[in-house]
Amino acid sequence: xxxxxxxxxxxxxxxxxxxxxxxxxxxxxxxxxxxxxxxxxxxxxxxxxxxxxxxxxxxxxxxxxxxxxxxxxxxxxxxxxxxxxxxxxxxxxxxxxxxxxxxxxxxxxxxxxxxxxxxxxxxxxxxxxxxxxxxxxxxxxxxxxxxxxxxxxxxxxxxxxxxxxxxxxxxxxxxxxxxxxxxxxxxxxxxxxxxxxxxxxxxxxxxxxxxxxxxxxxxxxxxxxxxxxxxxxxxxxxxxxxxxxxxxxxxxxxxxxxxxxxxxxxxxxxxxxxxxxxxxxxxxxxxxxxxxxxxxxxxxxxxxxxxxxxxxxxxxxxxxxxxxxxxxxxxxxxxxxxxxxxxxxxxxxxxxxxxxxxxxxxxxxxxxxxxxxxxxxxxxxxxxxxxxxxxxxxxxxxxxxxxxxxxxxxxxxxxxxxxxxxxxxxxxxxxxxxxxxxxxxxxxxxxxxxxxxxxxxxxxxxxxxxxxxxxxxxxxxxxxxxxxxxxxxxxxxxxxxxxxxxxxxxxxxxxxxxxxxxxxxxxxxxxxxxxxxxxxxxxxxxxxxxxxxxxxxxxxxxxxxxxxxxxxxxxxxxxxxxxxxxxxxxxxxxxxxxxxxxxxxxxxxxxxxxxxxxxxxxxxxxxxxxxxxxxxxxxxxxxxxxxxxxxxxxxxxxxxxxxxxxxxxxxxxxxxxxxxxxxxxxxxxxxxxxxxxxxxxxxxxxxxxxxxxxxxxxxxxxxxxxxxxxxxxxxxxxxxxxxxxxxxxxxx
Amino acid sequence: xxxxxxxxxxxxxxxxxxxxxxxxxxxxxxxxxxxxxxxxxxxxxxxxxxxxxxxxxxxxxxxxxxxxxxxxxxxxxxxxxxxxxxxxxxxxxxxxxxxxxxxxxxxxxxxxxxxxxxxxxxxxxxxxxxxxxxxxxxxxxxxxxxxxxxxxxxxxxxxxxxxxxxxxxxxxxxxxxxxxxxxxxxxxxxxxxxxxxxxxxxxxxxxxxxxxxxxxxxxxxxxxxxxxxxxxxxxxxxxxxxxxxxxxxxxxxxxxxxxxxxxxxxxxxxxxxxxxxxxxxxxxxxxxxxxxxxxxxxxxxxxxxxxxxxxxxxxxxxxxxxxxxxxxxxx
Lengths: 748, 331
Hints:
The structure holds two protein chains of two kinds. By secondary structure, chain A is α+β, with helices and mostly antiparallel strands. Chain A is about 30% helix and about 25% strand.
């Protein structure tokens, strides 16, 4: 059972104290997410903010247009890349071009390039991964910067390297990690019990499934613009998913007590932007030493090579079931491939209940940058192993692909499976337990995959809502918008509480001084932030009601805020919003809010399906349609939630069809560290997509982002097999593999 | 980036005077039109010229002229977007319009030119990597031969295994197109097929016979009354990509049952030059149908010598020929 399986959380409930509940929350350390259990208040008392009945909501849970949409599409939104400060210098790294080397760095010539202000060694001696920054140049123009970087003389003495799993595990492999190129395998389960359980199975399949190292491919590369520090403070513009925490990281290298981190808009992070990183440290040192603002954003090539990756894996799975398709026994061994990092894998069995299982897992190290968290770390990898093996078993048993899934999961997934199956056209599909092995040249197949996630909140955010005498309402939150539409739901929650329209509230986000805020990891921003916003708006409304009650000689409980303004039930008087605000003193109302456990929940479920068409003559694979049904408690913005689902499906589709880091195994150089050769799905690859929000879920707010990326590629790979009988056990599902698979089928 | 002089001639003669005469120094001066290939080469430091000769101010080279006999004369500065949308090209030289339409993205097609497309350099990963001193860059080894060669040649390879990346070239060869090369001493015309070279037969660092002091000014496509054609390109990523393989087919067919009287079949993406396979075209002659298409497919890949990672191109080419012929049969 996975740590994130909702059943695990249900089981944890009985041990809690009265008035408290235990929840699993993601914690991010060194860019890696782990789930930890915390205890929180579970009081549902009166006098607390409540979301209220769903059908009474006016803005929340409706189709909301992003409040910053126009700014984004017109280019007005200021991203870190866009920041320009007076006297600013452009800085960038030079990375080591090979995987493992002894490097000397001579920056003398670079310093002489006109326009170059500084050139420094970042690292010399042993360089341990391909692309590791070895030097930095700061210059007045980007052209001078390019020339400066080019003028650096690197003395490279190549050292033996391992850039693939095979190279790392070879008998004469060079040392990657002092404690061994593979970590000690961690074993869970009883091998003897599993071996016995396999004996009773109606069918057993065994296969190896591989996923390559993938990139986050953030449109905005990593980096910061660091302003010149004064004696005790500094401002840093940082493309980060942890604005509040990031301030602390900059204090050291800037040698100041206070750092204001600003992050109004960011172009993606996906888990790779928790840390200030070497780019943040070096930018700070340059700003301090040169007394000039420094713009240090990674080049696209650097971004590909030194800003983290989604780890790959090789997983060998043996799975057995009974005649009905109930999973009886599973044995698995997993190698995580995260470069110098440990890699991540959610473990097997994944989601599905298997009566008896055993697994071993280890990390295999290579001379590549360490993996970082990436949207549901370890889950898409586990999904590919589990869903592929489950599918293979279903075919071996002759059991319907939807039925076998329903037999091994809980009620929510079962209900979602039925709905998704209906939407994708499963009921009419002729190939439910056998692939289409006819002679047709184009064939259509359907595949499925499931997801789970935590997505619960954290007591981290402090939000301020201010009401001015002129009628203005402002909500300030320190949290960044990783891409989920934070400004929009902050606006909606406050406007809903105060009876205002969206345009009546201004949301300010992404600044340390706006208040303590969560790091955006584990899809926990919504569940952490929304309750605090609700609480702040609730407190502001209460304070406003009390103030008005005094003015109107009424009682705060008699003051009602609705779309027509403010109504005093005692005097039956109605005031326009602006007139009511005018009764406030010059300071207006300022109220803060903090996390409210009862407004959030956690543990979500999703089912996805893909319909594909395969041309058996050319190996052309087209994804025709994808369907997702997803629960996530109270939806804050239905358009936004569906947009998250579409984004997750597209990212998984791209993973399925194209994405992999390619490193030349003999030369140790990067072959596709650019957007031409590292292929991402583009407009013509996008299928018809249907996102169904599971409105039977009546819980509080839960984050949804990561669950949506977990199963799409598995569903696509399964659909390929369903379409034509070729089982592709390694991603990406390129036409070369498909064509060879088809040729193999013909030979029998 | 190394500083370079930008020459902006307004006549062809002025442009020719700017060019390098010495073959050994040919990379010191580069022709510049749409810049879609050149700028990537500059950014990757594959070429570091002293001078760029911008052709865009020379009048008359950006036109497609339809001759009275129906043939086309296409100037080297005609953009791919213009060619793709040109009515006569679409109607009478369909494969050429389809090939133009299949290149890159809308942005690339609006900038990229016919001359640039025909003269572009290979996309091979090793050629494009500054740190791989491959044969194409004057080195001593074709790294693709024993390396990552999924995108490389199955036909005509050795000692270099690049594939020619042009989409227009296979379509134009299928139409028996001819190119005009203008040099200081005059001009020469030759079949486009003769314009391209194989690495074993000529300078391995080049893909064409273009001399350093010559400019490809025009492409003439002879009229093909009664012919129909198509260009089928297989892109790994449909939105924009180079070909894993492509097929240009042109046929003259009549009668019922439909009978093919003449045919051309040229492959792209599988060899260091557009791979004209007259024997495969010959197999298409006669009553049109799956039988002749399959025979043509088998002949098209005859002699293929796949490397470790590109054997899939053999069935792919056969599949594309079936697809192309099926499309033509429906027209």
